[in-house]
Each structure stands twice: as structure tokens, then as C-alpha cells.
Write a structure and sequence with these properties.
The protein has 2 domains: about 35 residues; about 60 residues, no CATH class. About 50% of the residues lie in helices and about 30% in strands. It contains 3 helices and 4 strands; from the N terminus they run ααββββα. Strands 1-2-3-4 form a 4-stranded antiparallel beta sheet.
Amino acid sequence: MTYEKIALVIIFLGALLAVQIYLYARYRSNPKAYKSISGLKVVSRLNLSKTSQLNIVNAGDESFLIVCCKNSSAAIVPLNSEKITDNLEGLGDAHV
């Protein structure tokens, strides 16, 4: 009975080690697939309430405002976009 438990633990640890080696080998064969995640940077995080959160994220040269709520989908708004800036400047000129 004791030998069966020891064998079961050794088999389980061997399976975990095999999965780890497989994932490491897969990452080493194609590291560019995972490089895209390294370009993301959370600039600021603000808890609006217990269930909602506001994040400012940089992705390369662009910034995004992300509002996340617990029971709804996230809203993503680009910041510092030339198109949005041009639209806002056009609205400001029209009201003057």
C-alpha cells in the first residue's frame, strides 16, 4: 500500500515535469509569439468601486483607457489618437 502511494506521487511529479519541459521547449522554438505581450504596460489603475476598475494601458506607441466592470464587458477607448484629437479640434472650432 505504501509503495503504491509513493509510486503514484512519483508518476504525478514525472507528469508535471514532462509538461514543464514541453512548455519550455515550445516557448524556445517560437519566442516571437510571446513577445507581443511584452509591449503592454499598465500606466495607471484606479478602483472606481468594488466591482469596477479603470486602467490606462500603453501598447507600443498608443495609449488606451480600459473600464472593466464585474458583470459586463470592458470598454476600451484609445487615448491620444490623432483621429480623435482632430475631431475634437474640429468641434472646438465650430463652436467659436
